[in-house]
Design goal:
Length: 396
């Protein structure tokens, strides 16, 4: 099927950006929000982002003008009736999304693809009240949608290959890089990112190193753009904790996804990160971090001599982090959450990782990862249980 008209529901942070890339991709685009002021603001933001992008040379003025001309405000859901694909970016509440999808199924044609931009709710549950569920998919963008290249096209057990392929094509025309994910907790990118913060929090709890040191090691030795604690401070400790709780609950409470009690304590104290002025760091007037010194380390590396240049804890911190990254990727592969190539793409584009989790698995080696996990499991329990697929790779 060919998509020509795209509808976007919810004109907030994500919706306005999604409508922008849809219009830039050449689609007639209709943006809807039930709150008139939010709709006006969203449409305004979209137009000014198009002008700003042209000034910065991201696209031509002509492209910006033409894209602006393709966007219209939809004052009711019925105004989306002619759309071939509707992307929902309404608040992250299951009941709200279920009702929206049921209404969209009524007002749109029988083959209109209904896509949700949810980050954490099962797409299958959102589709519960839709009569023809084969046309329901996930289309998960990253924030800000106009800059982040990744889009996860999420398949439920009912999604038709026609709907999935058409959504993938739309993602490509929007200038994104689509990957295919199974409808499962956090899909691919957010799930594979779990160990980056959770294992760092466990190392902090163990006294392996301070937050600041772990961050430095991850940046200089790991090649990550930000350390895990800087990242949590930026996201908000409370927001990151609620993501952690959602994974833990949806995954059937596996030990490796157990939320950190240190983080729970900080949230209870109101240390929420940058937005509250205090998190793992304290923020004064100038919140910029000084650039790291050039130690001549070619990141990412696990060479102990190289790592020792950064900090005495680095030869412990980085292998432990990579072992858990490799482990999560192995669990995800076993659950057929996505292909190995898509997993690497997800983390490079969605989280700016220097290498994908499977590339990092190659760096550490399955055997070393398993040895480390088994050793830690003896003292720390099931959070370090190696995935069967990683065990098999270590033996193979
Ligand atoms: P937001 O709060 O910025 O925007 C939500 C918009 O939905 C608001 O303009 C609001 O007026 C509107 N709205 C309220 N009730 C509605 C209804 N019944 N029907 C339609 N619209 C309604 O939220 P956001 O950050 O843009 O998030 C939207 C969705 O995108 C959520 O599902 C979220 O999980 C997902 N998401 C967010 C991010 C992110 O980083 N913000 C990233 C990926 C996915």
């Amino acid at each position: 099927m060919t998509v020509e008209r795209v509808g976007v529901v919810g004109a907030g942070t994500m919706g306005a950006g999604i409508a922008q890339v849809a219009a830039l991709g050449g689609y007639e685009t209709r943006l809807h929000d039930p709150v008139p002021a939010a709709l006006d603001t969203g449409v305004e933001r979209l137009h000014s982002a198009l002008i700003k992008g042209a000034t910065k040379g991201m696209w031509s003025e002509k492209d910006a003008d033409e894209a602006s001309g393709r966007v219209g405000a939809a004052h009711s859901l019925e105004d989306l009736g002619e759309c071939d694909l509707v992307v929902e970016a309404a608040p992250e509440e299951l009941r709200v999304k279920q009702r929206l999808f049921a209404t969209l199924a009524e007002v749109c044609g029988p083959v209109t693809i209904l896509a949700s931009n949810t980050s954490s709710l099962p797409v299958t549950a959102i589709a519960a009240e839709v009569p023809r569920r084969e046309r329901v998919v996930g289309m998960h963008f990253f924030n800000p949608p106009a800059l982040m290249k990744l889009v996860e096209v999420v398949a439920t057990a009912d999604s038709s290959s026609e709907a999935l392929n058409a959504t993938t094509e739309v993602g490509t025309r929007m200038g994104r890089t689509p990957i295919r994910a199974k409808d499962s907790p956090g899909f691919i990118a957010n799930r594979l990112a779990r160990p980056f913060t959770l294992e760092s929090l466990r190392m902090l709890a163990d006294g392996v190193a301070e937050a600041r040191t772990i961050d430095r090691i991850c940046r200089i030795g790991g090649g990550f753009r930000m350390g895990p604690f800087e990242l949590i401070d930026l996201i908000g400790l409370d927001v990151n904790l609620s993501v952690a709780r959602s994974f833990y609950a949806q995954g059937g409470e596996p030990e490796r996804w157990r939320p950190s009690s240190i983080q729970e304590g900080l949230v209870a104290e109101g240390r929420l990160g940058r937005k509250s002025g205090k998190g793992f760091y304290e923020y004064g007037e100038d919140t910029r971090r000084k650039p790291d010194p050039d130690l001549g380390v070619a990141a990412p590396t696990l060479d102990p001599a190289e790592l020792a240049k950064i900090d005495p804890a680095a030869p412990t911190v980085l292998p432990r982090l990579l072992a858990q990254i490799a482990n999560e990727a192995a669990f995800a592969l076993e659950e057929e959450v996505g292909s190995p190539a898509d997993m690497d793409t997800a983390m490079r584009l969605g989280f700016n990782w220097p290498r994908g989790p499977l590339e990092l698995t190659t760096l550490i080696g399955a055997e070393r990862a398993v040895d480390l996990l088994e050793e830690l499991r003896q003292t720390h329990g099931d959070a370090y249980r190696p995935a069967p697929q990683l065990l098999a790779a270590a033996k193979g």
